[in-house]
Amino acid sequence: MASSKPQGSSFATSSRTHLRPSGVTIDDSFITETKNSQKNKLSQKRKTLSCQFSIGGHLSPWPTYTSGQTILHNRKPCSDDCRKRAGSWQQQPLGTTKPWYLEQLENYLRKELLLLDLGTDSAQELRLQPYREIFEFFIEDFKTYKPLLSSIKNAYEVMLAHQREKIRALEPLKAKLVTVNEDCNERILAMRAEERYEISMLKKEKMNLLKLIDKKNEEKISLQTEVTKLRKKLAEEYLHYLTERDARKILIADLNELRYQREDMSLAQSPGIWGEDPVKLTLALKMTRQDLTRTQMELNTMKANFGDVVPRRDFEMQEKTNRDLQEQLDSLRDDYEEVRKEHEILLQLHMSTLKERDQFYSELQEIQRTSTPRPDWTKCEDVVSGGPDRWHMLAEGKNSDQLVDVLLEEIGEGLLREKDFFPGLGYGEAIPPFLRFDGIVENKKPTKKDVVNLLKDAWKERLAEEQKEKFPDFFFNFLERRFGPGDAMAWAYTIFENIKLFRSNEVMSQFYAVLMGKRSEIVYIKHKETVAQLLKEMTNVDSQNEGLLTMEQLSTVLKSIFPFKKEEKIQELMEAGGWHPNSSNADFLNYRSLFMEDEEGQSMHFVQKLWEQYMDEKDEYLQELKQELGLELRDEVTLCKVREALMNIDPGLDKQTLNSYLSQAFQLPVTELPEEGEKEEGIVTRLQAALEQLQMADIRRMGAREHEPAS
């Protein structure tokens, strides 16, 4: 009897001879090999069982509620007696016996399950195999239901294969989940440690504040006690003076009464002197005194009520005078505002004129120094390696001073190649930490390209770390990690000599300035961030991702990134990018080419112009600061004056940026800077030193000038 196996089934037939120990994985090759070896045995077993247990392809009518303890005896499989008895089932009583076919299948299933090792996950799949065989027996024996049963079996096999493939696909995710779980646990532990430390610090701060509160409460209680005593004393003094006042008034009244009585008595004793009735005179005197008292009271009331009253005529005259003066003040104020604006414009013109004058003067001195005699630079064509073509490439667009630098670099490069060793500079304090060595070190003789690539790798590692150590220490540690402790000093001397020589290479010159402390590394970092932001904005504008922009789009991007640049500066950047005044704004530009670099790290003219404008704007900013202070370079300046001058020339400065500028100028930590108006007069430095420190840092304008709007 042939075996009915569905297509695509990944389950192999199970046999006692092919069971494996617990923990061993069954792969597809083993299952394939096992299929062929078990196929014949399984087919023979099916034939035997079907011949023994089937009765003409009919289902036995044995009821499910019987106990099934008895079995049919004296039955011969595949005999004529079976066929005869099959037709007589309807007449014979069913009884309570279980069909032989069913009992034999159950025994076979029980034996097969006992032979399986179900302790592993893979054995759980083999558990299905006996059930699969039993089901195949049914499919083969009952021909009428074979198509339906086969489709059911195939559907389950396909679903099992699909579920197994899904489980296999989820296995890597399980491993990744474990890794992510461990990483998250580590982060949680670190965050908990930080929280515990922060909580301990906050508890300490809380205890200190509680002590301070207790101290303040004690002071408050003592002050309240003192205030209570003073109030009590004041009340006593008030009662004392009140009593004195009342006694004085009573005394004055008694004195007046005595005086009046004496006068009355004198008049009564000498009536003949006046020639009138004393009673009448006394009555008249009393009435007169009453009138005098009443008049005096009215006079005092009038003075109190109308002492500050101005006559209407005087008020109107003063009001007219005030109106005239107000009109004159408004007119003078308008005139002053116009004069102030003209003064600011003249100051700007004066500053630009001074700058142009200084520039022209320096150029004049340079021209006077180099113009006689005019050097013949064509003589260098045969001296420089590479011949006339390379010399023309090096000399293109450079003045005489720059050509001298190029020639010195070419000569120095040849001399540097001839050196096999460098003498150590010793351990002096003036020697940079990465060059402190006594003896001779080997010259590694790298190419300019190798040096540039090494410096770029150093910058990448520096930007990736938290920048806890100083830049010279980081540089030497980077060389130790790259070349080992034995060759680190040799590479330090080699790279230092190269970057000191090749000043025209922007990567080397910028690295040399940061390494020697002439420029803060944040300047380089901010410049790279600005270039990256500019490229990102251009990419966002390029919605089609074609790498092309119109000149109008380029101008819009530049104005959005640099809102405080003047219009002529924007035009310079566009010209550096390839735009010409005679060209149309609809012309397309390959903006990605503006940010490319050659093999020696040299940027395109656009990025170079961006760096030149940044340095010029920084010089202009510091020159405005110097003019605002109105001091000479050798004079001393206070922190208060520098703060006020920075706010005047750049009102858009926020508090954090202003404090960082002051910290750089006066070489103080930001946390030690006093608040505005708090003991700032005691912090002084020389103006030249402050400007030099600001020149090293990243200084840029944060807002529009007062006399010009933002772009």
UniProtKB/TrEMBL annotation:
Assigned keywords, A-Z: Coiled coil
Coiled coil: 199-233, 315-349
Species per Swiss-Prot/TrEMBL record: Equus caballus
Chain positions covered by the region annotation Disordered: 1-25
An annotated GO cellular component: cytoplasm
Domain Translin-associated factor X-interacting protein 1 N-terminal: 106-215
Keyword Transferase: no
Bias (Polar residues) ranges: 1-16
Gene name as annotated: TSNAXIP1
InterPro entries: TSNAXIP1_N (IPR032755)
UniProt protein name: Translin associated factor X interacting protein 1
